[in-house]
Fold these 2 entries.
Entry 1:
Amino acid sequence: MIEKILFKKQSKVQLYIAILGTFIGFIFLTTSVHFFIRINESKKNEDVLKGKAIVIQKKVSSLSTLNLVKTDFNPDEIEKLNSQDFTLEVQPIINNSFDISIQTDSKLLPYFRSDIFLQAVDARFLDVSSIKWQWDENDAYVPIILPREFLVMLNTFANARGLPQVSEELAKSVSFQFNLSGNSQKTSKKVKIIGFTGDISSILVPPSFLNYGNDKFGDQQSLKTTQLLVSIQEGTFGKLEQYMQSHGLEAKESSLVIGKLISVTSSLLLILIGISALILLLSSLVLIQYTQVLIAHNHYEIRTLLRIGYSPQKITKIITKYFILIIAFTALFSCIAFVFLKITIDKKLLDSGLTISKTLTLQSGLVLLFVVLIYLVLNYLNTKKEVFNAEESKS
Amino acid sequence: MNLHFDKVIPHTLNDIQQKENGVWNASFSLSKGEKIILSAESGKGKTTFVHLLAGIRKDYEGTIRFDEKDIRKLSLFQWTQLRAHQLSFIFQDLQLFGDLSVEENLVLKNERLPTFTNTKLKEMIAQVDLEDKWNTPCNLLSFGQQQRVAIVRALIQPFDWLIMDEPFSHLDEKNKDLALTLILNRINELQAGMILTSLGENQLLEVDKKLYL
């Protein structure tokens, strides 16, 4: 009965505007929060090299081919790069100075052998546990990180032989073997793949293994630092790019492109989160104003209800319940719209070559829940104030 | 619940000369069960007096207490509790819901604190000669008919005091008697008191006290 009295006189147009604004705001917010999280974690998930770490090297030119320009880094150059404001950390990548080949060591894979090039990177640049990323002579196997191109090459070879393709998961579960030689010695070591990278073209091993190989089989004189692993601050890809251009440096293109893409997309998504917050703020103001207009239109009814003994709490509860239903349905429909939008965007990203996790993020749901709660609390407080004002105003 | 007045005067009447035996600026008490008539000329503050007791107006000096409780200190929630359980009002402007039917107006009041069955409500409406208006929206009734609906609505709750502001102003003698009979029966049933403003002479009503403004 009270509902019949209170919601008869209402301006539906204003309500529809508020609902539409809230609906759009909810969709924008959940979508931008979801993709902000997914895009930022996508590189982490796909690659063992940490998201903001980049491998850089000097540009190879005709002069360097003729040995007129050095392609290795001296300590001053490393220190200069390390002192830049965008740099978090610089680490020289150690190379092997001995002969080494890798071969398959499992009946699950066809026999395959190839001479390879090793590099060592410290565990703190990698998304693997430091326990997994260590080796000593007594260990059963050497943990390695394989470039994805290597797996592509292995699969091309398998395909040519009419053998089944090897997935990343299968490759991780089977054994390989290193054959080390030099200084008139040779040995073999079992190898286990613990991850893949698209950013480094050589096989990565723990520094302790490379030091062991270089000491025992290698030529210490020929050790040079030709590549650096640079970890930079978030959103500073532009500064790094400028520095590289002015110092004749280059990074692996895919690493830089993905880094830039993630940086730009993250910034755009942050702007979208801001716009969503603005839309929600405006629509909450419209909704609050709508409540005020609704209560003003029903001033006589509310005042009379109070005078025949209905408590302000009861009236506030009825109006709040009405808005809970409106906001809950708006949130529900925006969730459904968000899921459809997410499926569409996921497909577009996949078509563009960017794979991200398809599962819904808990955070986007929590943000939506938080905003809904803010909406309801604001609306409750506003309604309560207006109901009390209805009694206070002159009869 | 007894009502106590201690030198009460509304701000709007501060500058007006008050009668010696008048209510304003006087100290007196009204006990539950008393039937009181408040008479005054127009503009002397009858409606203001009712509104002070209803907690609608607070622009006065002095103190009004319900038992020992100063009504200035009552919260809105406490006022609504009093209006539901101990004080019932018939305001001069009636304060019905015009879009609701007679039945809906009464049911809305009865839902606040279920007191009577729908059959009993219909009987009470029949007692004031409005049974054929049961489903009629109140804004389609004459003011006299609306007054009778407001009277019935005021009776369908428990109360210690029934406070009425010119409730019979648009009723003819016959309907006034019907309404007054219903009121007195309910008051006697509850052993409640009543305050009635501006009633002409009526043989049915024996008053305990007359107040002047």
Entry 2:
Amino acid sequence: MDHPVPIADIKRLIVQSLNLPGVNPADIDDDAPLFGTGLGLDSVDALELVVALEKAYGIQVADDQIGRKVFASARTLTDFVNERLGTPRGVAAGE
Amino acid sequence: MSGTRPRIFVTGLGAVTGFGAGVAALARGLRRGAPAISPVTTFDPGAHRTQLAGMAPLPPQREGDPAARLGRGERFAVQAAEEAIVHAGLGAAELTAAGVFFGSSNGGLLEGEAFFRRLRRRERRLGLRQVASHQNNGPGDAVARRFQCTGPVLTCSSACTSANMALAAALDALRAGECEVALAGGADALSEVTYAGFNALRAVDPGPSRPFRVDRAGLSMGEGAGVLLLETEAHARARGAVVLAELAGAGATCDAHHMSAPKDDALGPLHAMQRALDDAGESPSSVAFVNAHGTGTPHNDVVEARALRELFGERVADVPVTSTKSLVGHLLGACGGLEAVVCVLGLLYREVHPTGGDDPADPELGLDVVIGGVRRLAGARVALSNNLAFGGNNVTVVFRRAPHD
Amino acid sequence: MTTVVITGLGTIGGFGAGSEALAAALARGVAEVSELRDPAGYRDAGAVNAAALCRRNGEDLDLSPWLDPGRARRMSAPSRFAVAAARMALRDAGLPVERGPATRAVAMATTFGAGVFTERLLCEFLDSGPRTASPFLFTDCVASAPAGQIAIDLQATGPNVTVVQREAGPLLALIEGAREVASGRSDVVLAGHVDEIGTLVHAVLGKLGALCAPDEDGMIRPRPFGRTRRGFLAGEGSTVVVLERVADARARGARVLAKIIAHARAFDPTAPRADWGRGGAVLASMLRARLARLGLTPGDLDAVVSGASGSVRGDSLEAEVLRGLFGANMPPVFAPKAVTGEYGGGNLAAALVLLGGASCAQVTAPDMLDPALGIALHDGGLPARARRVLVSSLASGGAAAWVVLEKP
């Protein structure tokens, strides 16, 4: 994968898929908490975000990754997506 | 509290589940304790996140059988209702003024999905006649129509609490004398979009569900029906009916917290159980066993266990708890109806069926979960059945052993 | 049964929002309709393409006076309509949104649930596979989502019931709610109904031949009990009322809209699944017997707000029941569903508004009536001395529910 997914794209995806009223993606701070405080998202938002990510980037998110660490902030989410995309599909590590 | 109201008796039982058609098949399956959770058969589960469910059998179609035109959920409902009526020994005349109180959360969605596919493909023959069963009142209406009932008929559709809600509504109507006989329970046929939806919530165990275990991983879905034939004491005695149990009380609350997560403080389920016991004129100390909602989702089991510990206090270690959903799956809108049948069987035979799986219960939950075999009870007078649902609804019904003169 | 009263009304529909908007529409006698766009092509060519929707000038009705956009972001339209109507009802009753010591409960009905969300869910997984199913859509798709959302919004921790019983749903929910309040288990009940008319549901109703076609001027006039009736006007929206025990209402000096003095429920097993049956005589005798048990005779009823909507067999059945009940002594009859539409519109709100002094234009002229039915529609408001109104709803599929409301 040549170009990493920019954090701006992830912010736009968050706002669109979660139907956040009046939130400008550019206003989401890179490191601000998404869940609990900050944007105040909850567990169903996390699941919705997972579906949106899977659709947009073709990655798969396992149940135990839908935790607070990966989804803590826009930055951790972007890093996670890029890490998953870094290995081209169909080629397992070590082959 | 219960002094001046008539007692409401259960005089017939009917069921269709993954263990097969009929209460006898259900009872055998519950005693054996091996889950009837197998690959989904009414649609191809291959592309879904999981593949298993408690699939129930439909009776073979007879030539010219009016039931053949009914949707799957409607057929489960009619079959279970018929069994309950025959079991109770009621004739057609006694059903004329009967009420029908059903719970269903899928209704005819399975047929609705097929219809929608045909519509999108612009097929000429859409099967519009079937469309009418698409609302959740399909199964209950089919029962009322089949048995020519003219009394109060309604369907409750509140996700997993639908059938317990219907039982509560039936209890209320019978106590008020609005009808003397009622068919009450629930029916649901598994549908693909519901299967996908629960998977989207990551709430489904890829294998058979293991409620109250340390490594519980979610629910198993199921389908089928559970129906009770209820009558007032006066009506039952007048015709010399055999009384199986008493539907003694019901209680309902709402967490009013979140659309798909229960509130951690467990007060909603606790108050529902307390209200149900108050309604029945019983106290927690008289409860012999609990048929838990027991879906096996990490969160549900924690909250329900907490509510049970709060209700029973130190006594909780002495109250056997089981989850029928671990053996036949979560019948969604119908689960309360089926679990009511199981409670009545438990009181009749003084036994509690095992929860599926061999692992021990999660010690942190502090419950006496029945595992490994049927638990025999020395005396069982009162049983609780819980339903906890999306949107935070909690409905508990209480059964009391039939008085034997 | 302890007397239960209605102390607040919230209502949203094709007529706009609130009882005044409804009263104005009833006085005009005709519904505002909006076109339903059909990008997926569900509708047959030439089929009815309009319904009484919660829209004004091409835009969704502004519900922001009652609905916080942050909370509404995950809600389906039925949930939004229902929460807004519930808040409106509470405000109308003079009760605070915050709960206080009273136990609040909810009893709602819906026919189609979240039709648009369900359709989107189905489309997504048919197009992109089941793993793309949206949790947002799924959780608000259950029939009980609107009732659940009302409970969260108003901290209603008492029982939360959702009834699905087509056209009889609204009154059945009202009856469940009234019994809950009368029992003393809950102190305030929000009872009502909600339905959304999306393009898919509307197209299917059209294919079933259930809808009234527009007149040449584009307006839809279903003409209940009329000779030329061919179907109903589909309507979306929500009506929610506040129910309390009369003693509590008096104690806080609440204004009472109506007392609920009787109710009845029955079923017509001659009804096919998607239509009305012909068991009007049996329904009438069940209703008469039930009223008698409550100490009422048909002569005690001063008016009827019927569920007649313009449907061919539904109106026939309504007429048969009314004739069976009243014989030659028919009181004034109203048919507000010609204006509010069927399903989300409902006639409960109209009945309350009429009790409050509104008037309803004669939606079917005398020379347009079906002589076989023997029912004429009243022109204007309730007669001055009218105190008790029978509100009637007969569902396709067979269920029936009635309520008798009394002027306070």
